[in-house]
């Protein structure tokens, strides 16, 4: 029978200080964990440091707040799981696995060792939360221009290295100034929030959407060629057009113009963006509410 126990590792300042005295021989673990704010490296370092004391063949760390599932090793039938929490802050769940059961002594030792992990995990969580705030548009809750600049460079590098397709979609909300002038800026904010939501409804989990500025959005489609990106763009355009936004008991119809470009060879970020942006302006010039490809 599978030996699986789900426990709650809760550490308060008081119990953590008390644990320090008991665990003088575990300071090297704490030192190793203080060297990074990366979740992957934290869990990897912890697993490596405790392996000789609590042998295990694999680990799985999940964190719903950041959509993380970090796995490594040879999965086995026996496991023990800990929901990690400090004060009122949830820090994710860690599961260790091996081919034979974890006994009481293993679990008691592991609970002690987890005290070394709790506060580095808290620091990593606070750091990632700060990054997310810095890279998130507060109105639409999409990533912002700064996030786009970092993300597109990384995606182009990966696409070039692995000879994969990469496409982007530039989207501009049609007649947005008219919406602001006729209904007010609060209505304009609702319109942008709604458009962001309708865009996300058309994307895969591997796709990314960014508010580029004003009423412009950009979608990055990894491993997607121009034809595939056109299908996504048409789906987005259609989804926006087929929704009617209600504001102060008034129906507000919204449409968007979209331009699509696919990465060419060793093309730069600026060149890729310029072609998609140019296609989007062509769509607006041709009558709006349409998709134009940049060949």
From TrEMBL:
Record PROSITE patterns: GGDEF
Gene Ontology MF, one: diguanylate cyclase activity
GGDEF domain sequence ranges: 164-295
SMART domains: GGDEF
Known cofactor(s): Mg(2+)
Catalysis: reaction(s): 2 GTP = 3',3'-c-di-GMP + 2 diphosphate
Signal peptide boundaries: none
Transmembrane intervals: none
EC code: 2.7.7.65
Enzyme class: transferase
Database matches in Pfam families: GGDEF
NCBIfam families reported for this sequence: GGDEF
PANTHER family, sorted: DIGUANYLATE CYCLASE DGCM-RELATED (PTHR45138:SF9), REGULATORY COMPONENTS OF SENSORY TRANSDUCTION SYSTEM (PTHR45138)
Protein's UniProt name: diguanylate cyclase
Species of the source: Methyloglobulus morosus KoM1
């Amino acid at each position: 029978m599978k030996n699986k126990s789900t426990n709650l590792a809760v550490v308060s300042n008081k119990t953590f200080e008390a644990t320090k005295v008991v665990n003088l021989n575990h300071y090297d673990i704490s030192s190793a964990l203080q060297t990074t704010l990366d979740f992957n490296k934290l869990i990897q370092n912890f697993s490596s440091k405790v392996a000789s004391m609590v042998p295990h063949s694999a680990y799985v760390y999940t964190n719903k707040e950041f959509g993380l599932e970090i796995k490594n090793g040879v999965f086995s039938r026996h496991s023990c799981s800990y929901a990690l929490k400090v004060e009122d802050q949830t820090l994710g769940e860690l599961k260790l696995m091996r081919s034979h059961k974890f006994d009481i002594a293993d679990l008691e030792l592991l609970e002690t060792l987890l005290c070394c992990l709790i506060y580095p995990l808290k620091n990593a969580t606070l750091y990632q939360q700060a990054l997310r705030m810095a890279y998130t548009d507060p109105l639409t809750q999409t990533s912002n221009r700064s996030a786009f600049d970092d993300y597109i460079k990384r995606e182009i590098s990966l696409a070039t290295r692995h000879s994969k397709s990469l496409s982007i979609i530039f989207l501009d909300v049609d007649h947005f100034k008219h919406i602001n002038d006729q209904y007010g800026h609060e209505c304009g904010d609702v319109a942008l929030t709604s458009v962001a939501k309708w865009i996300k409804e058309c994307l895969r989990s591997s796709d990314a959407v960014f508010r580029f500025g004003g009423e412009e959005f950009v979608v990055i489609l990894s491993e997607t060629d121009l034809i595939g990106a056109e299908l996504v763009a048409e789906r987005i355009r259609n989804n926006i057009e087929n929704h009617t936004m209600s504001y102060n008991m008034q129906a507000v119809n919204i449409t968007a113009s979209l331009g699509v470009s696919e990465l060419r060879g060793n093309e730069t970020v600026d060149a890729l963006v310029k072609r998609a942006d140019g296609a989007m302006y062509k769509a607006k010039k041709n009558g709006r509410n349409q998709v134009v490809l940049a060949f």
